[in-house]
Request: fold
Amino acid sequence: MSNDVKESFVNDAPPAPAALAAKVRTLAPSMTRSMQRVAEAVAGDPAGCAALTVTGLAELTGTSEATVVRTARLLGYPGYRDLRLALAGLAAQQQSGRAPAVTADIAVDDPIADVVAKLAYDEQQTLADTAAGLDTVQLGAAVNALAGARRVDVYGVGASGLVAQDLAQKLLRIGHIAHAHSDPHLAITNAVTLRSGDVAVSITHSGGTGDVIEPLRVAFEHGATTIAITGRPDGPVSQYADHILTTSIARESELRPAAMSSRTSQLLVVDCLFVGVAQRTYETTAPALSASYEALAHRHRTTRK
Reply:
């Protein structure tokens, strides 16, 4: 586990009970295996774990008391007592309004109605997890950088490339100079022309996609403000990111790879960035949106005969 990840979460205010499960999913890949067992236990059975002492939870998970305390701190709580209080609150919330008994594990022979229900629930959970875990201080700083940028380059490949295009076209529509790059060669050759006052955004669920990390590194070294949208805040992409916006860890299945399910959380972050920029530049954004709407209105009108 890197020190950067530890510092970025431990110093935050303790997460609300509802955000606990999302934080476990986000941080679990960066934990040691023993800490993962503790984290999975508290997220899976908050009521049961809330009733345990630190010694009891250590025995339940086959770990040590020190591991339990370290896990609590990594999750954002000053100590185990604070984590127990959050677990009790989460258990109370679950008892007052339980989530539907449905999972995102889609079977080959599932009826289409079940597929719809499972995907809808998974999408809702992904959005809720991302919103709960999103650092609004980092988000605000990223919005400020984008709002004042001379030029914005967005890097993404595969499914993340579609999200990169979405962010670029949104910014273009309100008058900002923005380009999405899915070709790594073009991304790098464009990154070398970025300077202070420009912004580069890399979108990578894994946090380790070399094709988007390399242009971000180049942009970073040339003085541009850099932003990473990723499900792994401790991944290699964070080395070159001034601002990190964390998405929820996608629940991967055979029929729905992580690259597909992660797109939902990425699009939420993109929408948050766009709305934030639009708010800060409203005097120019409103006329630009109106003009773009009018320019396309005739294409959406039904011709009456």
User: Anything to note?
Assistant: The first helix runs from residue 3 to 10. Confidence is low (pLDDT under 50) at residues 1-12. The radius of gyration is 21 Å. Residues 191 and 218 are 6 Å apart (CA to CA).
